[in-house]
């Protein structure tokens, strides 16, 4: 791909490179009292946690009473926010500039603790104890596949209820788990409840319930096959677990449905976070489409880590050609090095901007903000403020 | 490894390794590295199997083929040896491992379940088993790799591969994923699944396996790599190399970088050079290039600080350049050649 700057009119793919997305007005979103929940989602490694924290800090310093739920922040960032303790409760962040009456609390999700609390609040003490000690429960509640997403949802529901009861917060910012697929977050509650509704679970419970006599013949074959493969004790533990969970099913499902409805409500805004890379933008596109299908309110796209724009319009091809001429005379030419760097930067930025334009062409309705890559990682409030400024400039 | 044709070529840092597991933080390009490594390993008449376990069909996109079924498919020809080696390159085969299909295959292979086997699927047991017990899921995924790794080339055992590359879950989850034994411990204390897990662990702990970690020269990924290595060692899993990906271009030397940071590069000399190379120099061009160089030098300095940390991890390291035009199939071969020349393959 070369830098095409010739003035003749073009048709075909290159003709569309003028398309650019509407700018996303982040400050308007943060300032709108109608915005009660902001969910940051996107594939892993695109800077979701930093973006969530920066948005929360900016909103707080603009006067909102904010709580941010982070999933897995970098150690130094967590320390600077005072949330390196995993106690599953929001803690006030020190040194927030509260001149406009805002405040910022932050917490880091403790997946297992959240799950335990769900069990404890939904079952009698003896039953809860029985569930908490079951090896299946232990495996399910501390594994990363799916449970983390569900628990993030659960915690969001809790924070929302608390905020409504005592008015402690008027904005909740949620980071989502670092899954490879951005869709996992939305699918988790559905997966859990369809799993709990699954035929096999109902079969395991059937003997206790009576009228499924016809099914139990089949069940016998299955359970004996399973004991062969997994061992008899495995199956016993599993049956105990399923029976114990049965009492919680109703509660589980009702809560998952409630949280899902909360996400569809007007007060919620989804921000899709991406990096200017094909994979991250592909995930972002899936997510945008999925939000539309589920009638969930999409506020916009944040493209993080954009490469810095070259400061000269000298084309990459011209720079490379000139660098080659200089190197022929002097293999160590400094100027050749400068030209090659310029060409590299120009090509990178051209590619990124093409990727963004492609996204905009397919999703013209999605307002977008582009955040340039900072030279250093963000690990203090100052860094978060800087990101906030970059997000806020329209 | 008595068969001489399976001996690795001279120059590889990992002779005798059959299973290369590639992990890395999200966004560092671990799938790209896994694919390039597979091409590099297939370069001297060897067949390589590249596996993915996260259900993302990343391999089919990288190699530009149709989405992969649960079946080994040939996707590419290995890297051609640059110096006209007489051995022609081998092939890269790809396999998309999915836990439910693996469970059914496993059941069919080891048990004659007959009616029960079909019932299992109909009653949603496979979905149940792979959802409720994440440990079981990982045993199934790694179990398929174990099966492919132990093939001896006899007719009925299936295609024998000289090397297997696994595009594994990210660094944060890798120890848990590979340590199937512990994960299962509370669930299945005996029975075939448990002994299957024991067999898998024997392979993972052996000298035929290594785990490579992919990182970029930024603080968080480097920290996560260090944590990942510590965890792997704690679980006695064999740590391989660190592949530093997406490295910035190295067009300026150390002295030039320092001068660029200080704003001490010779403006007149650069302007004269540009003119002599036929570039139309206006007032803005030289300051723009110098300012870009300064920005670049700042970032290189931060990269160097991280590179030093990577060096202190005390494992072999390899570096791959950031390609400004992105990674397509051709680029995978370029990266493969790079890995080969540095000795990862």
Features:
heterodimer, A: alpha/beta, Rossmann fold, 2 domains, eight-stranded mixed sheet, 15 helices, 8 strands, globular, B: 345 residues, 14 helices, elongated, disordered N terminus
Number of domains of chain A: 2
Could you state the oligomeric state of the chains shown?
heterodimer
Summarize the helix and strand pattern of chain A as letters: HEHEHEEHHHHEHHHHEHEHHEH
CATH class of the largest domain in chain B: Alpha Beta
Shape descriptor of chain B reads elongated
What's the name of the CATH homologous superfamily of the largest domain in chain A? P-loop containing nucleotide triphosphate hydrolases
CATH topology of the largest domain in chain B: Rossmann fold
CATH architecture of the largest domain in chain B: 3-Layer(aba) Sandwich
> Strand count, sense and closure of the main sheet of chain B?
8 strands, mixed
Quote the CATH topology of the largest domain in chain A. Answer: Rossmann fold
Range of helix content of chain B: 40-55%
Q: Which range does the strand content of chain B fall in?
A: 5-15%
How far apart are the first and last residues' alpha carbons of chain B, in Å?
A: 17 Å
**What's the CATH architecture name of the largest domain in chain A?**
3-Layer(aba) Sandwich
Number of strands of chain B: 8
Give me the side-by-side strand order of the main sheet of chain B: 3-4-2-5-1-6-7-8
